[in-house]
Amino acid sequence: MRFQPLEKLINLHDGYRRHFRFDALALLLLQDQGEVYLIEPRCPHREHPLENARIEHGMLECPLHHYRFALTDGRLLRASEESCRNLKTWALVYEGNEVGLLLPD
Ligand code: FES
What we know:
Layout: E1 2-8, E2 17-22, E3 25-32, E4 35-39, E5 54-56, E6 59-61, E7 68-70, E8 76-78, E9 93-95, E10 98-103
The structure holds FE2/S2 (inorganic) cluster.
């Protein structure tokens, strides 16, 4: 595994949201209330983009049908229609003054 840096810590702030792509892997890095999360950028329900999703106390709510997911582990918390899979999340790795993730070599 190799460390893939995403962002310098000094650039992170509440409300921060930024997309990344590594080959087929799409990621959304975001910060809320001092916590930094790395998730897939589209809703597992019907693929709606999540960069403008509401976030509150570690919970993300998709703007389209208001499904809710836990940001810590991606668990589906609320579904108003049919159920869907959990949101994909990735563990963040801190190295020096950067945050990133581990990718396969
Ligand atoms: S697309 Fe996100 S809740 Fe339906």
